[in-house]
Each structure stands twice: as structure tokens, then as C-alpha cells.
Amino acid sequence: VVGPKLRGWYDRRQLLEVGVTIANSGRRWTGLDRREQDQGQHDHVRSVLSVSTAGMLIRRDVFEQLGGFDRRLPLMRDDVDLCWRATAAGHRVLVAPEAVVRHAEAASRERRTVDCVGRTAASPHKVDKAGAVYTLLVNTRTAVLPWVLLRIMLGTVLRTLAYLVGKVPGQALDEIRGFMGTMLRPERIIAGRRRRGSPVIDKGELRALFPPPGATVRATAEQVASSVVGSSDPEVAAGAGRHGSAIESGPGGDDADFLEIEQFARVKRIARKPGPVLFLALLLVSLIACRELLGGGALAGGALLPAPADSGELWSRYLDAWHPVGAGGTPSAPPYLAIVAMFASLLLGSTGLAVTILLVCSVPLAGFTAYFASRPLVESRLLRAWAAVAYAFLPAATGALAGGRIGTAVLAVLLPLIARAGVAASGLTNGSGARGSWRATWAYALLLTITTAFTPIVWPIALVLGLALLAVRRTDITAYGLRFLAQFGVPLLVLAPWSLSLFPFGFFQEAGLEYGASAASALDLLGAGPGGPGTVSGLMLVGVVLAALAALLRSERHFGIWTAWAVALVGLVFAALSNSSTWAGPATLVYGIALLAAAVLGADGARSRVAEQSFGWRQPVAALIAFAAAAGPLLVAAGWMIRGADGPLERRDPVQVPAFVAEDSNTRDQARTLVLDSESTAQVGYMLVRGSGARLGDAELATADGENPKLDKIVANLVAGSGADQVDQLGAFAVRYVLVHKGAPREVARVLDATPGLMRLSEQNGSALWRVDRQVSRAAIVAGAASGSGAEPGAGAPQPVAAGPVDIHTTIPSGADGRVLRLADSANDGWTATLDGRPLTATTVDGWAQGFELPTTGGRLDVTYDDPVGHTAWLWTQGFLALVLVVMALPGRRRDIDDDLPEEAPVPAEAMAGEGRRARRLRAQAEAEAEEAGQGGEFPPPPAEEAPGAAIPQQSSYGEWDTPSYAGAEYGGYGGDQYQGGQQYPAGAAYDQTYQADPYQGGQYDPYAYGGQSQAGAYDQSYDASYDQTQTYQPGYDPTYDPAQPPPHGSERSDGSQQ
Fold first, then answer.
1. Does residue 265 lie within any of the structural domains?
2. What are the φ/ψ torsions at residue 198 (nearest 5 degrees)?
3. Residues 867-886: pLDDT tens digits?
4. Residue 297 confidence (pLDDT)
5. Which of 607, 734, 742, 827 could make a disulfide contact with 766, Cβ separation 3.0–4.6 Å?
């Protein structure tokens, strides 16, 4: 079997196939780059697995021996199957690259439907998938058939998911239908394998004809990268196509002259982009400022609790229905735990690294997203960079880092993206009045969901702005009403049931501990300063406020400026409401970014507007405002970098209790520590700590679980020294240690020293520790009389039972009748217990603790908490809704770009400006060519386009010479084979196909000599016009070429190199 080299139908230099093979996943593999140009790099005869049926030559006896094409493959993959069978039968399959066939591939490129596989038209993708599966299953060796089948199934699932994510459900359905259509007909596969029999060649010879290991994986990765960055990086986008990627075709044409100069062009382009440079500069400043926050230990302090050891613990905190915090309970876990756990999972489970990135990198990331999101706002990169720097160093951003407010830090990063998505979803940027896209709506809902999980106050702020938009769009209330419901209903639904607990005043909280109120003055709030550690006075950003006010005087773009000010006023109102109870940082971020948007809109083109005015008071005032607006963020950044970003936040040991206490808390008794923290005896704060201390998320769980009146009374009596038997009462909560933090009044220590049953152990770093002089444990067996609330002290000594943090699996001895297993956890219907497999009756002890009635016999005791079915079902539903939201928010699959046609993205012109070596060389070459063309050093104007003929469809020109097509061309008649004798063209006739050829053998090709003016010895006719084969030359139009005539331009190029 011999096959030709396939080239494109329109781009006649593009290689389509030089032999083809198939991967174990069913992918058709050619080993060519997308749009790889034919430069002779594959011009050698070689053995391949298969060649295309387009132009295939096969010996008749071989064709008859093989039985022809398989009838089960009516169109796709029939070539691979036939050649595979020929190779297995001992015949050779060769590619002859000197034979060239131009192929349109109309079916495989889905330019037309396929109607030869049944009574109805079918999708080409479905036919190709079915053919690939059938070809592999009937031809693969039996030893590797299970692996190939597994690879096909896995590839089908992954491709189906990719198509669904790319919002092309039709191709996802075709993928499944093509696979199942073949797999549901096993008799056809068995019959096909029986007809083929065993191959007569060694498996090693056949293996060399298939793609190398890992080649398809690399090609898929390149294709995914191309889809992600294709719109912004055309060089990467052109890297991988449907033909895979294996060979670089290298530079061609004039590009080879500049290869040495352009080898670092990509690095130079990146260096000239303000976005990456801005991020790196901000990252350097942030690392210097956070020098004390880098190193060993865990980030903690302020509103931040230490993160758990790995992401698995974070996932357990979010997914489990029972939370062992305090006395235990079933509150809804804050959803931000799942987001942090997901981010930590991407970092190989390191929660500490995830928290460090979210906090330490929040300032540079905020500046980068602000620069990116401001692209539709103004074109000036300088204004965008200034706005990004000013936003990154807003007091709320630096204060969030110093105070350990991870919620505000995440909001600072995502708020610019929310603003851009919100504007796009509202349609405010569409001058034609078109509605906002649904994809922007879903992106806005996704970002609003994430930020609401960290800082719930964003949702009511966005709700007020959404209602204002509905008022503006009241003429199209139906369309925008649906978008409004999606934008604000989806976050509440995805974050439920936690989101429902925020009404009405929970929206003012944020992730982490309640770490003090803002205490910001009115002047600070006007300057976007929320107060607190790590912030500066609002006067530092007075220039930004003045610039935003000055923008109101601009007559152009007044709608955008007034919209920004409306957002700023809403943010300022919520900042004032937050300032009295919580931290106003999230609201001041909204206020600050809106001020910056108004200032940027006002400053766009301000220099030219001020210059047009006669000199007066406007110029000095504008200069002062510009200086204040520019100097303020720079001074804030310098001060922040010098004094450091650490405040309450610091690197320290995550263990919050003495080491031996933490060790004792992890034994079979699961003892707990009561931590007291107060500044006066009138009001005492406390926390019931398990293990080594509280972790990320425990503060919200304890708050959501509500107050424990029983424990409140015990702590109040303990601190007051009421004389009651607080030790036994503390033992009921499994409290073995009492820790009083530094700063507590001395009266508290004296009262605890005088409390019977408490023994002072040590005092370290100002914190004093006492031990309860009783045997305490999380689980204990008590007598029936002792389990009641009115039991007398010492009515029955509790018998400790080995327990874990939640479940209990141990063996208990026999005992008296009426005994009860008492847990130091709140009673709940989810608790179940069995003794040797027999269920135990649940009861409530002391009005709050979980208990189980025990028989007199002993045995294997198992106590577990069973998550409710509704809780588990909602978690799956929530995950599905979140996945759907992400898919809807992601960009759709890039349109199928036909590799045989030029992409719509315009090719940038060669940059001739500047004083670089490349610019000077380009200018010199252009001037030399123009001078030789008789244009006196000026660039020649492009020839006028003529009306195309109607005989042959227009085909795209690719600026490359089609050497094989015109190898025998002569000057006298455009080649002796086609244009001889009386076939002449009329003057001025339109050519319908661009003429392409290599430089002529005897002379120098001059693109500027074809301007219609006669030159001695030169080929004189308009080059750019297309010729029509149906028309003829006018006599005398085509001058005869004289081989003895010397080339008109010499033998040197314009740059001095030899022709």
C-alpha cells in the first residue's frame, strides 16, 4: 500500500498527513504540528501504519486478499483498519512524499453531515468515534486488549467531561453515542477479530508504527494550554491542533533572517507588559513587608486561628455533621472552609501554605486583578497601573493582612473581577443597549458566591446595586429580572443552609474570630480607612477622593463616573453601619475601588483637556490633585514596607496550650482545657478547647452552636468563687485543665487558687495553669442515681471508658444494674450505640449530655454519630450545584478553527518604529526595495483590488511560494503545461487565485516591480491581481522572457546578503 503526502485545500503549503497512525485512546495521530508548513522535512519514503484513502494505491491481489474495506467502517477510520490489516498480514505500507494530494477533509472538519452510515444523517464526530473504537478493538492483540479497552473508556469519560465543561453537549453526546454504539454490538467485534486472525509479523515491528508513549498526553496538554491562552498568545495557540504536535517546522521566508535577533522576543514582550511587571514589583514589596511572617510555625493572631495540619482535617470540618467543638453540636460549617480546603488540596494538602498565599500574596494579587479588570475602563496603561497600585495599598487591604482577616484578603483579590463581571452582566458597557451575556451573569454569581462565603456583607451591597440596576432597566424587566434572580439567588442556594443563618445581622460578620470593631473616625471612612492595626489615616488617600470629585466635572463619560459614585456611596453607607459593631474593611474596599474607578475615568485624557485651557487656576489645582493622588499610595507602600506587615498576625507555634496538656488531651480520656480570657472580673470570656487548641473554622462553629447555659453558669460560679462544687461540674464536661491567659485580673487567679479541687501547676509567659483534682474523661460509666441532675456528690465514682474524638470502640466489663454510659457531648438523635451488636437505648444525662443505658453484661461497645441522610444528600447536591455554576461561568469552548483557513486574528504589522536593530534593519530593507522599485524611498501603495472572477472560488493567500505547483513554470506563458498557444488573458482581467511561485531561476524576484510600469528586462504585469483560468491573454500583453537578460536588481539582497 502506498499513499501520498496530503496538503491543505486552501493553504497549499500546509501539511495534513504524511502517513497516519492511531493511539490507544482512539486519537488519529499524524505527528504534525498544527498548520505545519511543508519545507521538505518529511520528504523521505518510510513505512507507516496507515495512509489516507485519498490518493491511496494498493496492489489488487493484496486488496482482494484482505477482503477490501470493512463494511462496518463506511467512512471514518477505514484507511487505518485496511492498512493495519495489510501490515499484520506481512505487507508494507509506505508513504511517497513526492506524490502530493490536496485534501479538503470536508467530512472530518464537519463542513458537511455524513449520510452514508444509515438512513439518517449522522454527526461526523459520532461516526469517527465509533470507527476509532471498532478499529482498535478488532485489530489490537489479545494480550493488550484489556488495557486498550480501559484506555478507551477513560478517554471517553474525560473527553465527555471536557465537552460538557466547554459547553458543547452535542459533541459530548456524540462521544457517548459513538462509544456505546460499538460496545453494544459485541458480536460484530468478535466476528471482526475472528476474520483478522493472528498477525504474521512480530509485535515489536508493529509497535514502532504507533505513537510513542506519552505523545498523546503531551499533545492534549498543549491543546488545553492553547485553548486557555490562545486568545492572548497566538504563538502558543498555534502550537497544537487536531493533528497533534511532534515537529517544529522552523522559520521560513524572511523570518529566518531575523532568527538570531528575535530569539529573546518573547522575554522582551513579557518585560514590556505592565501586568506581570506590576505583579512582580508588588510581590517584592509584599515579601519585604511580610519578612516577619515568613518562616516556621503557623500564621495566627488577630482574627485568624491556626490552620489544621492538612486539607483532610479542613474537609472533615466542613463535611461532617457533628463538630467536636466545645460541648459538640451540629451547626452548619462555614462554606469558606471548603474553598480553603480545595485550594490546599491543589497545593498537595498544605493548609499552611494555602493560608500564607491567601494572606501574604493578597496585596500583589489584588493589584494584578485590579490592573486586569480595568482594561475595559481606560486604554492608558499608566492610569491602570496607578489605579492598581492605589487599590493594592488601600488601608483595608493592608489591614486585612496585619489583622489576619482572611475574608477581607480574599475579597481584595476578587473584588475587581466581581466589578468587571457585574458591569458585563448588567450590559452597561454595551453602547448599543444590548443585554449583558448570561456567561457574565454566571461568572458574577460564582464570584459573589465565593466572596459571600468569606465576607457576607458583599451580598447585601450587591443586592442594593442590583435593585438600582433593575430600576434603570425597568423597560426590560423580564430579562434583567431573571438575571437578578440568578445573580443573588444562586449564592444563597449554593451556600445554604449556612447562608440562611445570616439573616438579618449575620452579614456584617466575616471569616475568623471576632477581633474588635473598626473604631474608625468619619474622616478615616471618607478616606477609605477602616481603622485598626495595619491601616493608615484616611488623609493619606485624600488625593484619590479629590480626583474622584474632580471627575464629576467632566462632561464626557458622565454615566460611568456617576455610576462609580453611586457604588461608592453605597459602600460608604455600609462601612458606616459596620463601623459601630464589626470591622468596616470589606465595605471600605467597595468604597475605595469605586472611588478609583471614578478617578481613572476622570483622569483619562485630562492632560490634553487641561492643556487646551488658557493658563489659570485649573492647571495648578489639577497638578496638586494629581500629585496628591500619585504620592499617597506610594507613601503608604513605603511606610508599609518599612514598618512591616505583621501586627496581631504572627508566626508562632499552633499549639495554644502547654505541650504536656496537648499531649494529655490526645489520650484515651480525651480530656479538655477550659481557657479563660478576661480583662475584668465583671465579664469573662472562655473557650472549651480540645486537643492542642482551636483551629480554623472553630470560632464560627462555636458561635453558630449558640451559648451553653449550663457551662456559662459553671464558669460564672468558678470565677466568682461561689463555693459550689465546680470541680465535679467541670468533670462532667471532661475539663481537666484550667488555663488563664495573660492579662487577666489577679482576683481571678486568687479565686482559682482558693477553689477546692483545683491545683496550680505552672505559670508560663504570664499564663497560669490549674489541674482538676478528679478523674475525668469524655466517656464514663456512672451509676443510675449518679447520672441524674440531683445526684449527691460522690454517689458513684465514674468509671472512665476509652474514647476517640467522636466515635468510641472499646470493650467494657460487666457491672451493676441501672448503670449509664455518659458522654461529655451534647445530646443528639444522631448518636447510636451497640453492645456486642445489640442497640442501646439513648437517654439524656443532666439535661444536656448524651447517655446510653447499659445492661449488666459487658462486651464490645461501639458508639458512633451517624450523619443524617438529609445532610449527606444536601452535600452532594451542593457539590453538584457548585460544579454546574463553575461550568456555566467558565468560557465556552473556542470555536472550531479550521486549520486549512487563516484565523480571523489580524497579523500585526512589522514594527518599523524605534531605534532597535530589528527596526533599523526593516526600515533599511523597505527603503532599498522601494528605491529599486522606482518609488524614491517611499513605501509603495498597495495595488487596487479588482473584482474577482466567477469561475473559481476565492482562495486565501498565505504569502509562501508553492514550489511544486510551479516547478516547471516559464516566464513566457506562466508554465508550459497550462498556458500555451492561444490561451491569452485580456488586459485588466481579474485573477481569482493568487499566483505564487519561488524566485525564478534566472533573476531576482522584485515585489515592487509589478506596479504596471514597464521596466527593461523585468517581468511586467500586476502581481497582486488574481488570474482566472477561464479567460485569455490579450495579444501583446505578456512580454517574452529573455534568458540572456541580466537580473534587474543584481545578485544581492537589500541587507547585503547574497541572493
1. no
2. -95, 145
3. 999 999 999 999 999 999 99
4. 87
5. 742
DSSP string, 876-917: HHHHHHHHHHHHHHSPPPPP---TTS--SSPPPPP---SSSH
How many residues comprise the chain?
Answer: 1059
How many structural domains is the chain composed of?
A: 5
Contact 354, 347 (CB under 8 A): yes
Q: Flag whether 954 is in a domain.
A: no
The reply to whether 99 and 172 lie within a common domain is yes
Q: How far apart (Å, rounded) are the C-alpha atoms in residues 278 and 275?
A: 5
Q: How many CA atoms lie within 13 Å of 851's alpha carbon, on the beta-carbon side?
A: 23
Q: What is the pLDDT of residue 766?
A: 82
Residue 634 is assigned to a structural domain of this protein: yes
CA distances from 140 to 148, 487, 955 (A): 8, 52, 42
Q: Are residues 479 and 502 in the same domain?
A: yes
Q: pLDDT (tens digit, 9 = 90+) per residue, 451-461?
A: 999 999 999 99
What does the alpha-carbon distance between residue 1048 and residue 1004 come to, in Å, rounded to a whole number? 7
For 188-222, what is each residue's pLDDT tens digit? Answer: 999 999 998 888 888 888 888 998 887 777 777 77
Q: Contacts by 935-944 with C-beta closer than 8 Å and gap 24+?
A: 935/1008, 940/1008, 940/1011, 942/1024, 943/1011, 943/1012, 943/1022, 943/1023, 943/1024, 943/1025
Average pLDDT over residues 768-773: 92
500 within 8 A of 486, measured Cβ to Cβ: no
Q: Nine-digit cell at 222?
A: 498543549
Tell me how far apart the alpha carbons of residues 1030 and 1032 are, in angstroms, rounded to a whole number: 7
Q: Are residues 474 and 585 in the same domain?
A: yes
- Residue 491 shares a structural domain with residue 436: yes
Domain with 199 in it: 2-237
pLDDT grade for 902, boundaries at 50, 70 and 90: low
C-alpha distances in angstroms, 24 versus 132, 226, 476, 1039?
9, 23, 53, 59
Residue closest to 740 by CA, chosen among 785, 795, 689, 789: 689
Give 924's Cβ-side CA count (13 Å radius): 11
Residue 102 sits in the same domain as residue 221 = yes
